[in-house]
Amino acid sequence: GIAQQENFLKLSDPTSKYLGNGWTSCTASQEDKITIRNQLTMTTGLDDETGDPYCTLATCLKYKADAGTRWAYHNGPYTLLDGVIENATGKTLNQYHNQKIKSTTGMDGLFIYQDNNNVYFSTARSMARFGLLILNKGNWNGTPVLADQQYYQDMVNTSQSINESYGYLWWLNGKNSYMVPGVQIKIPGSFQPNAPDDMFSALGKNGQFINVVPSQNIVLIRMGENPDSALVPFLYN
Length: 237
Description:
This protein is of the alpha+beta class.
């Protein structure tokens, strides 16, 4: 969002503009249809059922459907957003994050690669700071970290017509149905039925949660060990 705000990229750009041709095993025409927005919304059409879902190598990223026609939680394609940001801005992800978010909010931590995952190692207080930044629509004590309010609204609302409960990497409560990783069915109702309808959540690796509830002015953080083997432990949340 910040990179688009600063005119380094557009969400409508094909991912290959920043990762180069052949970043997947798709044909050129199939690959050209995948945009940054598809990566943000889990609609790349790449096959999430083959081999290691965390793998970011081209040999692991195989065609399943045209981009935008299928929703599937898939780690590899969204991890590659790191490379998109780095190649668009000319800065490493840590450099860009430090400059644009950490320096203003007072967060600590950094991204460290673990195999194919780029994991942010930090503290509960820093996670809460990020949650407060999002609760306040990208503003930190009067400083607009994310000034593009259209991006913000798109991020925390339904981003595509397939999974109502998914924005731009955020899970959305209070929708008519939701989908879960590994299953191509729509489940009726809210994904967190006991939480306020306006809650939206960052449900991270191994059960690290940021729940944001604008109507109650609440940010709820959970850190700890993995409670189960689910890719996204939403039931635990």
